Amino acid sequence: MAAFTDKCIVKNSQISMLYHLKSIKEADVVNKTVLLRVDLDVPIDGSEIKDDTRLVAWFPTLQYLLEKEAEIILVGHLGRPKGVDENLSLKPIVDWIANKLQKHVVKEKIGEFDSWRITDDVSVLENIRFYKEEEENDPEFAKKLGSLAQIFVNDAFATAHRAHASTEGVAHVLPAYAGLRIMQEVTVLSKVLQNPDRPLGVVIGGAKIETKLPLVEKMHQLADYVLVGGTIVGNEEMIAKIAATPTERNCVLLTSVPIENRMDATVESMEKFVQALQNAKTIVWNGPMGKIEDEQYQKGTEVLAEGITKTQAYTILGGGDTIGFLKKKNLLDKFSFVSTGGGAMLEFLAGAKLPGLVALEA
């Protein structure tokens, strides 16, 4: 799993399926009521939003709809509640939206759904996962959601890999379109799979082997360089699968971790990663190199981030933990594109069909 070589040959036999999405710009939304699914699942401490990256990402779609004089009902979730949980109320996020629009919030009901009205044209439903029927993708629940509007627009890429009532079910009830952010995500990530500027370097970190292994296997065949870090490095299943996968190159490098802590990548490993990526024209990175929740184990991820931002490559970053960390380090805006999808980005690049996107196809 050894050294890198500059003579990596990549076959083009594994090309991802294309999504032919219906864009919001094709929809007649003027003076229509639009149910807009957005990413509201952001880190919150009490009532304070710690990272609003996902909120900022879909805001242009809301502004587009307002310019078209549409009435918008925003729907989304926060966390994984088991029934109604006031600790996971969307109120802090509603306040963030109201502040952006320079308006005040009024509590109300839309149909049987608790909600807030922010302007005459913008309302927000309470956490949609307070209803168990949401994650069950219950058809009757999807119809209730659909009855609130005339058009459905999905701009929540982070949940595109979930077949839930507000991401997939309602798309069978109303005319369904992709928002501006989803269109951008699909365009950028499709290029990685279909026609990336090469050399293509892919960095995969984090801990969840069940979500990362399919991407490692896929990129082992597609990318010029695959760099694997985080706690998944010690997984024998992953190493065995890579070793057993036929390829025309030997371009996988695993990070090493200090024996005394096993919680962070060594600086030497990260310097090798950065050196390997110097000539890359496209770099995709998902997942930290260490347990970045703990300040003493952040060095590897920080060294890697600083190195990547100094390359000339088009850089794509994904994964909520990594994004939040790099934002704190003032490195986030140095990446070319920051994907709002963690698991959705992983599954997309691994070639899986994302039900939330399939439901939006023409």
Describe what this molecule looks like in 3D:
- The structure is a single chain.
- The chain is α/β, with parallel strands linked by helices and 362 residues long.
- The protein has two domains: 155 residues, Phosphoglycerate kinase, N-terminal domain (Rossmann fold), CATH 3.40.50.1260; 165 residues, Phosphoglycerate kinase, N-terminal domain (Rossmann fold, 3-Layer(aba) Sandwich).
- The protein has a seven-stranded mixed beta sheet. A six-stranded parallel beta sheet has the order 12-11-10-13-14-15, with helices on both faces. The chain has a two-stranded antiparallel ribbon with strand order 2-3.
- The longest helix has 15 residues.
- The N terminus is likely disordered.
Topology diagram in text:
Elements (H helix, E strand, L loop, with lengths): L32 E5 L6 E2 L2 E2 L3 H15 L3 E5 L15 H11 L4 E5 L2 E5 L4 E4 L6 H4 L3 H8 L4 E4 L21 E3 L1 H15 L5 E5 L4 H14 L2 E4 L7 H9 L7 E3 L12 H10 L5 E5 L12 H11 L4 E5 L1 H9 L8 E2 L4 H7 L5 H4 L4
Parallel strand pairs: 1-4, 1-8, 4-7, 8-9, 10-11, 10-13, 11-12, 13-14, 14-15
Antiparallel strand pairs: 2-3, 5-6, 6-7
Helix-strand pattern: EEEHEHEEEHHEEHEHEHEHEHEHEHH
| CATH T-level fold name of the largest domain | Rossmann fold
User: Based on the structure given, which CATH architecture of the largest domain is correct?
Assistant: 3-Layer(aba) Sandwich
Q: What is the molecular shape?
A: globular
Name of the level-1 CATH class of the largest domain: Alpha Beta
In the sheet with the most strands, the strands line up as 5-6-7-4-1-8-9
The major pleated sheet works out as: 7 strands, mixed
Terminal CA distance: 43 Å
User: Roughly what percent helix?
Assistant: 25-40%
The count of DSSP E runs of length 2 or more, i.e. the number of strands, is 15
Unreliable spans are 1-17
Report the portion of residues in β strands. 15-25%
Overall structural class, as computed from helix and strand content, comes to: alpha/beta
